[in-house]
Design brief:
The chain is mainly α. Helices cover about 65% and strands about 5% of the residues. It is built from 13 helices and two strands, in the order H-H-H-H-H-H-H-H-E-E-H-H-H-H-H. A hairpin with a 2-residue loop joins strand 1 and strand 2.
């Protein structure tokens, strides 16, 4: 049963003051929220009851930290807290062990990201993080990737100015010799339709198996710029292939 706004505010105040009965009542009134969130985490190899308990921990944290002075619905605030607690559980329980130095670097990178986001009003690039932390770009990328849980290749890694960088943009082909995509589409002819810069990016990315970060270092651009060039080049290539059948 949903609580009236005034009743909710009173319970939150009492719970944050340490009253266990108030906290338990708030938890009971928001269990359906936890259940709805768990639907997206099924088939992960974990017992539903275990994940439910983890979700409830996130709910309790949301209750303890919710600020009544901020004009935001409690559910809006609680959802990312619950999801974060579940994802943290997956990360900590990950069978792939990450070294302590990498974990510590990832923590520093995330902390610097948050500080720069607040200062600049946008996400910093990997190059900017590298300059601020005085750590090579490759080490920053390795630390961030090591701290990630297994996820979709199309999940957003970071973005700058609205241009997304996906995880698939930061990985290499396992065996590029077996990839015949370009040969099938008369690549030499298609490449002639690209600008010099586009052609160089495509050759480095798909013929020399370089990541976007590596390409950026080679040609002296940011990874975001490389991403834009790559996307435009692929669009040009697809259009040409479609027009020529």
């Amino acid at each position: 049963m949903a609580l009236a706004d005034e009743d909710f505010r009173v319970l939150i105040s009492r719970a944050q003051a340490g009253e266990q009965a108030a906290r338990e009542q708030l938890v009971a009134n928001n269990l359906n929220l936890v259940r709805s969130i768990l639907q997206r985490f099924t088939n992960r190899g974990y017992e539903w009851d275990d994940l439910f308990q983890i979700g409830c921990i996130g709910l309790v944290k949301a209750i303890d930290r919710f600020d009544l002075n901020i004009p935001v619905k409690f559910s809006t605030y609680a959802v990312p807290m619950i999801i974060g607690e579940i994802k943290r559980f997956f990360r900590d329980d990950n069978p792939v062990k990450v070294s302590r130095p990498l974990k510590e670097l990832a923590y520093k990178v995330h902390k610097m990201q948050s500080a720069l986001q607040a200062e600049w009003g946008r996400d910093p690039t990997v190059q900017e993080l590298s300059q601020k932390l005085k750590v090579p770009v490759g080490e920053i990328i390795s630390a961030l990737e090591a701290a990630q849980t297994p996820t979709s290749l199309y999940e957003l890694a970071y973005h700058d100015g609205g241009d997304p960088i996906f995880l698939m943009d930061q990985i290499k082909l396992e065996n590029p010799e077996e990839e015949n995509f370009f040969e099938k589409f008369a690549i030499k002819e298609v490449l002639e339709k690209l600008s010099d810069k586009e052609r160089k990016v495509i050759r480095l990315r798909f013929f020399m198996d370089k990541t976007q970060a590596e390409v950026a270092g080679i040609i002296g651009l940011s990874q975001v710029q490389v991403s834009r060039i790559e996307k435009q080049a692929l669009l040009t290539m697809r259009k040409y292939m479609a027009d020529t059948g």
